[in-house]
Design a protein that fits this description.
Elements lengths: L1 E5 L4 H10 L4 E10 L15 H8 L3 E6 L6 H16 L3 E3 L6 H14 L2 E3 L7 H10 L3 E7 L15 H14 L10 E7 L5 E13 L2 E13 L1
Parallel strand pairs: 1-2, 1-4, 2-3, 4-5
Antiparallel strand pairs: 6-7, 6-9, 8-9
Helix pairs in contact: 3-4
């Protein structure tokens, strides 16, 4: 099956791509760039880095911009998926959804309307198991956004490794936050993964903090030989 992957550049969509490539042929990436930082559907920190990530993967990128208005943004998503179907002959759409019924149901509805399969390889994966899979496959993942107490500015820009995972487990027990950020507590950006032919190297960045949340903004990055 020829897959198009809904791709934000974060850990979930990149791992979903990795798993989809074991089941079929990934022929393109589909990215929706939302102007709304509070989008219900789309990851926003460093979504522009998907251009470099697509180059690293050697895959074409279908990218559309949306205002990010709830429900209305789905029209733009459908437009992007249809474009991928026309240009690259996709037969199925891959999502990185883990727990969000809101996201899965809406992508499924779009796929049904376009005659496409909706494949959710991470669905109910288990948050600890998901991170363990990232470590096993040697993904390089940076924390690009934090949006929940007690996570603070010191987390931004840090690599998500086993030590950080251990800290998240402790905080999860104490404060009830999701260890994989499934509740929106954390956003991530992937710098390297098994299917990347090159890795992303950050040359310049900015940390933006606003009282209780913030983002790690990649201002300049390049691809380098692995």
């Amino acid at each position: 099956m020829r897959f198009g992957v809904l791709f934000s550049g974060g850990k979930d969509s990149t791992l979903a791509l990795h798993l989809a490539a074991e089941k079929g042929q990934v022929v393109c990436l589909i990215t929706v760039v939302s102007k709304n930082k509070e989008s219900y559907m789309f990851h926003t920190p460093n979504v522009d880095v998907t251009v470099l990530q697509a180059q690293a993967l050697g895959l074409p990128l279908v990218s559309v911009v949306t205002e990010g208005c709830k429900e209305e943004e789905l029209v733009d998503l459908e437009r992007a998926i249809l474009q991928a179907k026309v240009l690259f002959g996709i037969e199925g759409v891959v999502t990185g959804a883990v727990e969000s019924v809101y996201q899965v149901s809406r992508v499924q509805r779009i796929c049904d309307g376009l005659g496409l399969v909706c494949f959710n390889p991470l669905w109910k994966f288990g948050q600890k198991a998901l991170l363990e899979r990232l470590f096993e496959c040697k993904f390089s993942v940076v924390i690009s956004g934090v949006f929940a107490y007690p996570l603070d500015v010191s987390w931004l820009g840090r690599l998500l490794d086993r030590d950080l995972f251990g800290r998240l487990l402790v905080l999860s027990e104490k404060y009830g936050i999701s260890v994989s950020g499934e509740g929106g507590e954390i956003e991530t950006t992937v710098l390297d993964a098994p299917l990347f032919r090159q890795r992303v190297e950050v040359l310049d960045f900015e940390v933006v903090w606003d009282r209780t949340s913030g983002v790690y903004v990649i201002k300049r990055a390049v691809l380098v030989v692995k």
